[in-house]
Structure formats: C-alpha cells, structure tokens
Design brief:
single chain; alpha+beta; three-stranded antiparallel beta sheet; 53% helix
Length: 116
Amino acid sequence: MKSEKGQSLAEYALVLPLLLLLIFGIIDFGRYFHAYLTVDHAGREAARAASLGNNAVDAAVRNGAGIGLSSGHVQVSESGGEAVVRIVYPITFVTPVIGSLVGPLQVDNTTIMRIE
C-alpha cells in the first residue's frame, strides 16, 4: 500500500475556504441583525421623543451609538398629528467575498407615532 500522509492535507486545503466562508458569513449575518435591532430600537425611542416634543435626532443618535449612528442617518418629520422618524443606516460586510456577492445593504426603518 502507498502512504496516505498527503491526503488529509489535500482534503483540508479543499475544505478550509468553505469553512472560513461559512464562519465569516455567520459573523456578517450577526452584525447585520445587530444593526437592524439597534436601528429599530433607536427609531422607536426617537419617535417617542418626537411625539413628546423633545429632540428626536438626539434620542436616535444616543440609542444608536453602539453602531455609530449619526444625525445624518436620521430624518424626522411631522404630518397629520403624527411624528415620522426614518433611519437609513448603511452596513458593510467584513467578508469581501460575501460583500461582493450581496452588494451594499442598508437598514431602513420608518417609525410613526401619534403626537401627544
């Protein structure tokens, strides 16, 4: 019988890129999900602040500080007795392969709350 010392190395070399792609894909999905939840929470807090007559942009930026949310991502308007807060936050991927396959994504959240 021939020696099979190089077989495991060859199999490892074939499986390693797929394993790394899977791991970084899980990390990217977690980052996107975290950004989505943070933007959702910041939108609700900003809409609540706007409905009470407070500064909604400051409330959104304060609640979205963990992902680097800035005042440029937040739009506040009032129409028909309702406060409307729209937050658009772009997200980039850690993995270049997944980023080039999926393209640029953004979390877009609109929250409407009645003015009290």
